[in-house]
């Protein structure tokens, strides 16, 4: 029997953050470097001309992982909740400084760039897959560490027809805290076993499973943090209920569309 609700990780699972962030940073840097009115210091111009923006984007993403991980492992009740938006802004400023890019953009543009994460493009199968799942009377919900305004903007930008938007912000915690998974299930008025977590990260699924949820793994390019050996071990252990590999499904019918097929009883 198909779950009554699917709760989706967003960054990497539903949207291709890497492509959008890299392209946006690169375009903004090119605009400054090619502007006749630009008066950048020579060292800043040199660093901006030679930096690999895909590497910078990954470093930015890695600060997010550290931030949410540290918040979860420490006593979150003892400090005020900091949103992912706030983190993205603070960490972008710090990364620019670390890479010799102080002064590349004015503060207003840095703030704008920190909101890139509101407007990420989805994987090709995401919107269509969610639409088909909704037609099967399955509730489709975000369960992301992104804040509510970020997820709302992204849903509009990428045409993601969620039935519910759940954010870690609702629970003053970050995944993989049980407070996030249990809180979302409670909001749905369902039992944990009636819900499945959908993610491209086995750590996310493991935490959801420990809260009693079913699990669906959707492999996405360069998204899994675990080693190939650890991924193979997890697959062999069989604790993931549905495993959608990156090569599974016909061309144009991969990812979430393959999830639709499996839940519909297809091979």
Unreliably modeled segments:
none
Total beta strands:
6
Helix content: 40-55%
* Helix/sheet category: alpha/beta
User: How many strands, which pairing sense, and closed or not: the largest β-sheet?
Assistant: 6 strands, parallel
Q: Determine Rg (CA atoms, Å).
A: 19 Å
Mean pLDDT over the residues: 95
Order of adjacent strands in the largest pleated sheet: 3-2-1-4-5-6
What is the 3D shape?
Answer: globular
N- to C-terminal distance: 15 Å
Order of helices and strands: EHHHHHHEHEHEHEHEH
Q: Total number of helical segments? A: 11
- The fraction of residues in strands falls at 5-15%
What does this structure look like?
The chain has 267 residues and is an alpha/beta fold. It has helices at 17-33, 42-50, 53-73, 84-98, 107-114, 126-135, 148-158, 178-188, 202-210, 228-237, 256-263; strands at 5-8, 139-144, 164-167, 195-199, 214-218, 242-244. It has a six-stranded parallel β-sheet with strand order 3-2-1-4-5-6, sandwiched between helices. α7 links the parallel β2 (139-144) and β3 (164-167). α3 (53-73) packs across α4.
Keywords:
267 residues, alpha/beta, 11 helices
């Amino acid at each position: 029997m198909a779950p009554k609700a699917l709760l989706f990780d967003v960054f990497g699972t539903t949207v291709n953050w890497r492509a959008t962030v890299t392209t946006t940073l690169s375009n903004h840097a090119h605009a400054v470097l090619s502007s006749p009115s630009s008066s950048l210091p020579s060292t800043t111009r040199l660093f901006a001309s030679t930096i690999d923006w895909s590497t910078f984007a990954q470093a930015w993403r890695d600060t997010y992982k550290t931030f949410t991980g540290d918040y979860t492992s420490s006593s979150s009740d003892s400090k005020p909740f900091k949103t992912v938006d706030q983190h993205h802004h603070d960490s972008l400023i710090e990364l620019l400084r670390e890479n010799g890019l102080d002064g590349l953009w004015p503060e207003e543009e840095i703030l704008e760039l920190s909101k890139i994460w509101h407007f990420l493009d989805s994987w090709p199968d995401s919107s269509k897959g969610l639409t088909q799942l909704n037609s099967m009377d399955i509730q489709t919900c975000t369960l992301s560490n992104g804040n509510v305004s970020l997820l709302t903007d992204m849903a509009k930008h990428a045409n993601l027809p969620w039935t519910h938007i759940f954010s870690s912000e609702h629970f003053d915690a970050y995944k993989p805290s049980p407070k996030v998974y249990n809180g979302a299930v409670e909001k749905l008025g369902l039992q944990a076993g009636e819900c499945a977590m959908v993610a491209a990260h086995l750590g996310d699924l493991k935490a959801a499973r420990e809260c009693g949820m079913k699990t669906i793994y959707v492999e996405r390019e360069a998204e899994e943090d675990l080693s190939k050996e650890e991924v193979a071990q997890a697959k062999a252990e069989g604790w993931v209920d549905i495993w959608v590999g990156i090569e599974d499904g016909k061309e144009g019918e991969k990812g979430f569309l393959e999830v639709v097929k499996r839940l519909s009883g297809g091979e």
